[in-house]
Automatic annotation (TrEMBL):
Fe cation binds at H57, H59, H101, E103. It holds the Pfam family Pirin_C_2. Residues 159-238 form the Quercetin 2,3-dioxygenase C-terminal cupin domain. Keywords: Iron, Metal-binding. InterPro entries: Pirin, Pirin_N_dom, Quercetinase_C, RmlC-like_jellyroll, RmlC_Cupin_sf. GO terms for molecular function: metal ion binding. Belongs to the pirin family. Binds 1 Fe cation per subunit. It comes from Paenibacillus polymyxa. This is Pirin family protein. CDD domains: cupin_Yhhw_N.
């Protein structure tokens, strides 16, 4: 099954200090038919105004990943972690049995844009943890670059964030006409999100900027991903 969710179908809002769009039920947007995709619970596309953000608030038993697209995002929590993340950086927070944190735009003059992803954990009640990693943006070109993974790959500490769930988050940039392939293992799901540009999938489905697709139980496990024009996208391999 290949289901496309156009960008315009998301729940969007503008609070002045915060502009965003939700791909799944979240906060004031509630749809009982759109609460999850496998362990994926949230895909929020947010822009936070300079100097603004979220005050101290709690989380528990949730894996939270923030991917900064531009600007500077500042994290601070009650376990002593403080970090500022920019493009090329990933924040991963495992809330475990409980964590309190704040999240703010670190700049007083520029917006910060980010994708925030929430996943239910593989194991509940763990000790809370936080990790900030960084990848070389040049490595995004022409391949699917893993930036978050459920299985730690030796030698990738600081580059690939470890997560308490059996999933992998890839980022990729392709030039017009360039193509990569991804093989979807049996029983697995794929979530595609186009950050900018357009992507043709399996020669027939075209996704534009901020469109997403949820793919499961496809008869052909190999996904062909071809850039219609310059494209920046995210692919998540999920159970």
């Amino acid at each position: 099954m290949f289901t496309i969710y156009p960008a315009a179908s998301r729940f969007s809002f503008d609070k002045g200090w915060l502009r965003g769009s939700h791909s799944f039920s979240f906060a004031e947007y509630q749809d009982e038919n759109n609460t999850a995709f496998g362990p994926m619970r949230v895909c929020n596309d947010d822009v936070i105004a300079p100097g603004r953000g979220f005050g101290a608030h709690p989380h528990s038993d949730m894996e939270i990943v923030s991917i900064v697209l531009y600007g500077e995002l500042r994290h601070e929590d009650n376990h002593g972690h403080v970090a500022v993340t920019r493009f090329g950086g990933i924040q991963r927070m495992s809330a475990g049995h409980g964590i309190i944190h704040t999240e703010h735009n670190a700049s007083q003059t520029e917006d910060v844009s980010l994708l925030q992803l929430w996943f239910s954990p593989h194991t509940r009640g763990l000790k809370p943890s936080y990790e900030a990693t960084a990848f070389n943006p040049e490595r995004l070109y022409g391949q699917l670059l893993p930036v978050v993974a459920g299985k730690r790959v030796p030698g990738t500490e600081g580059e690939i964030a470890a997560i308490n769930q059996d999933l992998t988050i890839y980022l990729s940039k392709l030039q017009p006409g360039e193509q990569v392939e991804f093989t979807q293992a049996e029983g697995r799901r794929v979530f595609l999100f186009i950050i900018e540009g357009s992507l043709r999938v399996n020669g027939e489905h075209i996704l534009q900027g901020r469109d997403s697709a949820r793919i499961e139980q496809e008869p052909k496990p190999k996904l062909s991903l071809k850039a219609e024009d310059s494209v920046f996208y995210m692919l998540i391999d999920l159970p």
